[in-house]
Amino acid sequence: MRTMTKVGLAVLSGLLIAAAWPVRGLAPLAFVAFVPLLYLQEKGYSFWISSLTFLIWNALTTWWVWKTTAVGTIGMIALNSLFMTTVFWAYHFVKSRFYGDNKGYYLLIIFVLAFEYLHLHWQINWPWLNLGNVFSHYHTWVQWYSVTGIAGGTVWVLLANIMIYRYLFAGDFSTSLRCGRNDKNIQTSFRAKRSVAEKSPAIIILCVLFIPLIISKIQYHTYKESGSDVEIVVVQPNLDPYSEEFSLNPREILDRNLSVATPLVTENTRFVVSPESAIQEDIWLGRIDKYYSIKELRRFIKQYPNTCYVIGMSTDGPVPAGEEKDFAARKFGNVDKYFYSYNTAALITSDSIQLYHKSRLTPGAEAMPSWWFLRMLKDSALDLGGTVGTLKKDSEARVLSFDNHKVGTLICYESVFGEYVTEFVKKDADMLFVITNDGWWGDSPGHKQHLEFSKLRAIETRRSIARSANTGISGYINQRGDIIEQSNYWEQTALRNTIKTNDKLTFYVRYGDYIYKIAVFLTALLAAMTIVKLILGKQWKH
Fold it and tell me: d(Cα 424, Cα 414) in Å, to the nearest integer?
């Protein structure tokens, strides 16, 4: 195969998967996006040529990170593309060395699932491009995520690609097309087989494509929301994160939040929700009651005794004795004392404050890897407002409680982590809030994709979601993943709506990322078997 043909196949796969990605993508393209790459793998594999697929996919779907840091974006796209290419190389290596031409395709599903699970849990996590997310704009297709999580979507996409590839290029029919075009006897033989041999795989492919879709559509139209109605006001103060949010007087920032919320609050309102980092007073946790913003919010709440306020803030607190060497610990200038910085969500009533500190931190912006060879970069996190450096994480998913309701409050990036969200629900959260600041990325696909992914969390947990974005899109999502109301981008506003609670646990909430975990186990087993075979110098015969 000529080099230009190889390049063309790799580029085509990259363009197809990028064209399938939300928010304006055509998700059905995902079912054929990897077919050219699979053909390349068998007919003329090259590590660097195949990397074009993943480079194009990453660049065309996450280029918007450029708006926060050009150098960081180039590094992120290059590194993630390299990771993905390495996963595909591992598939190629094991399949080509130990399997025949028409065997071992399932390895791709296993290896990709294991990598996606790694991307949810290691220190440079970036699950934004996990394949199951491709259906976020087509949420009526994947109602069964309440059973499988997004891992089920990854299996669906890859299985469809493998079956379509095998039907087109790896079976008897493709052999007849390549080898027997001018041989009448061969053509006659293959035509005789087509009535039986071709119809079976074609029917199976149609079943793989349409049975999950039909099941989802039935689930979507028969699912009935349960629980009581809760009135919530979400605030979108529309502060420019580059020129206003971290430079304006804290009083002015709080006034902007309260001025748009106040006209909508009624005696039935139970929660008012403002976005991530809405309070920027360098709040010290040991004396949180002393700050203007907290006092003012309590004065506001006293007017509405049935209401509480959920709001994001940047906070600091002392490092307990013995934890001075913690990676997130920061030193006070020349004083031999240390403190932690947090990205915090607070639930404030007239006489109490409950706190939850963000636990799934954004790589580069809020955390740097603590691996020994990168510890020199500890204080090099991107300056996206507030103090630069690695933040301290909460030790668990903490629910915030008010008026017999328990709420899981997801701070920005946390809403991308399906299994982590289930931890709030297991602790009896009957609804979810997302507080975020998506203005860093401007009017790009970034804030739109982030909103879309929240729809998948609603389906997985069957929990309604109220979403407050500083700049981005605020709104409400029901238990089926429908957006029932949303704001416009770059608009100072507040919305009032009612969502339903739910206390039932889905299969996915109960068992989490079990598909991913099975894949990790199988990957470890395959790796061990591969090493043994290499050491023994024998090939796997099947």
Answer: 12
